[in-house]
Recover the amino acids of this structure.
């Protein structure tokens, strides 16, 4: 019964974690690359200030700010306040179901993502800066390759390794620490809300089941991260270790 309950709540938390992590990586990696290429510029200074401010704002406080401004609070009523799907979801067409899902999940995903930009952006910037100043990059420029070719054929593969290594911790950090408060604030019926309610009611089987599921998920994500190493850089061969 505990397993069935956990599996029922799992898709909500997984979808929050995956979309938040995807949004963070899609923004942070290109931003980190541009900051590395324009180090010391006005763009670098302004973006650093913005991501540090974003990182300093607690997830739950940012969620409340979004609700006040965009979910029927004091200002606009653009997004729903509760739930991950609407009440008439089952009667909608496929396109309307997709639209309804993303309409409901927009504010929770943005709330979860705001604190993750700083670490990954600065990690991307420092990783690319380290590679840019290496000798093989100067050699590639000397061979006549342009900046785009050097960046994506040579630097990108080496610089991405340390970024890929941070995927498990980023995803698990969102699931374990961020999703709890977000699911409570937005009334999302996921593992975070279930864990909170089980602690309040002292439902120990559900508590230990949740911990087991998160641990298992962490191991699986770590394995996927190791496999991505060989995909990004075929020179890595774990059989030689």
């Amino acid at each position: 019964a505990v397993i069935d309950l956990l599996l029922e709540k799992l898709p909500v938390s997984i979808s929050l974690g995956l979309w938040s992590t995807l949004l963070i990586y899609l923004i942070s990696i290109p931003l980190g690359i541009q900051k590395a290429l324009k180090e010391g510029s006005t763009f670098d200074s302004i973006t650093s200030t913005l991501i540090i401010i974003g990182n300093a704002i607690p997830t739950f406080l940012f969620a409340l700010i979004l609700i006040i401004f965009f979910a029927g609070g004091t200002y606009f009523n653009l997004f729903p306040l509760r739930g991950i799907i609407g009440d008439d979801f089952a009667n909608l067409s496929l396109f309307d179901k997709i639209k309804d899902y993303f309409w409901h999940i927009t504010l929770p995903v943005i709330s979860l993502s705001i604190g993750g930009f700083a670490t990954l952006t600065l990690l991307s910037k420092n990783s690319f800066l380290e590679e840019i100043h290496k000798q093989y990059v100067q050699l590639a420029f000397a061979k006549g390759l342009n900046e785009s070719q050097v960046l994506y054929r040579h630097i990108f593969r080496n610089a991405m390794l340390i970024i890929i290594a941070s995927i498990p911790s980023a995803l698990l950090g969102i699931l374990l620490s961020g999703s709890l408060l977000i699911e409570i604030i937005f009334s999302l019926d996921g593992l975070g809300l279930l864990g909170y309610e089980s602690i309040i009611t002292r439902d120990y089987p559900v508590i230990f089941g949740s911990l087991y599921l998160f641990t298992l998920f962490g191991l699986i994500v770590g394995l996927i991260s190791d496999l991505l190493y060989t995909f990004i850089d075929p020179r890595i061969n774990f059989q030689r270790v």
In short: DSSP finds ten helices and no strands in the chain.
